[in-house]
Amino acid sequence: MLKTTDYFDHIVLILYVVILGLAMVQHISNIGCAIRLRKKVDTYWVHTLWAILISILQTQMAEHVWGFRGHDNWSNLNVLLLIANPILIYLLVALSFPEMESVDGRVDLKKHFINNQKPFFLSWELLL
After folding, report:
1. According to the 3-state scheme, what is the secondary structure of the chain?
2. Higher pLDDT, 1 or 29
3. Beta carbons of 54 and 82 less than 8 angstroms apart
């Protein structure tokens, strides 16, 4: 039988860190792809600002989860609410960059940002 601290350490924390880690890897990969294909990517300062803010938020979330290590009563709702945060971050990362590898012409980050701003900001609001 797992103690509640073991439950957090083995299940909740691992789920949280794995999902957040996948989001971080995807975000770094997207930034790297934009840098690698910079000759065909039209940047947009608002998009760049949001990419930086998402990076900062991911780092803060990784530090924030450590504060829950002493929580004793983990209900399914508590776990779902905690795991929803890295899932929403992953969704923000997925919405923030277009598929740049498969595009033959130019990639316009301003157009992509404007086309995806509703789901992007909806995810952002759910996160807060």
Report:
1. CCCHHHHHHHHHHHHHHHHHHHHHHHHHHHHHHHHHCHHHEECCHHHHHHHHHHHHHHHHHHHHHHHHCCCCCCCHHHHHHHHHHHHHHHHHHHHHCCCCCCCCCCEEHHHHHHHCHHHHHHHHHHHC
2. 29
3. no
- pLDDT category, 104, cuts 50, 70, 90? confident
| C-alpha R_g of the chain | 17
Handedness of CA 85, 73, 70, 5 (dihedral sign): negative
And the tokens for 34? 């934009």
Q: Do the beta carbons of residue 105 and residue 40 sit within 8 Å?
A: yes
Which is more confident, 66 or 102?
66
Among 50-54, 72-76, 106-110, the minimum mean pLDDT is found in 72-76
Alpha-carbon distance 96 to 112, whole Å?
8
